[in-house]
Amino acid sequence: MINTKKFVLLALACFLMASCKDEKKGGIKSSADQMKEVLAIHDEIMPKTVKFGSLVGQLSSMEDSTEMGLKYKHAREDLQAAHQSMMKWMQDFGNKFDPDEILNGKELTGQKLKWLNEEEQEIKALQEEINKSLEQAEALLDKKE
After folding, report:
1. Most buried among 27, 34, 94, 104, by the most CB within 10 A?
2. SS3 label, residue 19
3. How many other β-carbons are positioned within 10 Å of the β-carbon of residue 46?
4. Residues 27, 33, 38, 44: is their CA dihedral positive or negative?
C-alpha cells in the first residue's frame, strides 16, 4: 500500500514537472525574456525621437491659420505629445524596476510582473504613437517640397 502511494506521488510529481516544461515551450515567456522584448521595442523607437526636434522646427515655421497651416500645427503637436509620452514612459519604467531587473534578468515579484505586463502594453502603444506621428509629419513635409 505504501509503495502504491509513493508511486502515485512520484508519478504526479513527474507529471507536474513535465507540464511546467511544456508550458514554457508552449509560448509562456520568462520575465527576463519579456523584459528583453520591452527593452527591444524601446531601443527600436528611441533613435527615432532624434528626428523630432528638426521636424517640430520645420512644422512650426509652416503653421498659420490656413487649412494646411493647421495640419502642420496638428502634426507638430502630435510629435511633441509622442516625445512627452516617451519621456514619461522611460521615467515611470525606471521608477518601477531596478537596474538588476532591467539589465540582468533578476527575478521579479508578483507586483512587478503585473507592472511589466502593463509596461509592455504601454510601450507597444507608444511605438504606434511615435511611428504614426513621424509618418504624418514626414508625409506633410514631403508634400511641401
Report:
1. 34
2. helix
3. 12
4. negative
Percent of the chain predicted with pLDDT > 90: 76
Summary mean pLDDT of the chain? 84
Instruction: Give percent helix, percent strand, percent coil of the chain, each to the nearest 5.
Output: 85, 0, 15
pLDDT in tens, 27-61: 677 999 999 999 999 999 999 999 999 999 999 99
Please report the pLDDT score of residue 28 as a whole number: 76
Contacts 24+ apart (CB under 8 A), 135-138: 136/75, 136/78, 137/55, 137/59, 137/75, 137/76, 137/78, 137/79, 138/55
Our CA angle for 63, 69, 72, nearest 5°, is: 70
**For the whole model, what pTM was predicted?**
0.75
Q: In angstroms, rounded to a whole number, what is the distance separating the alpha carbons of residues 137 and 10?
A: 63
Residue 56: CB partners within 8 Å, gap ≥ 6? 76, 79, 80
What pLDDT is attached to residue 5?
42
Output the nine-digit C-alpha cell for 9: 506521488
Delimit the domains of the chain by residue range. 29-144
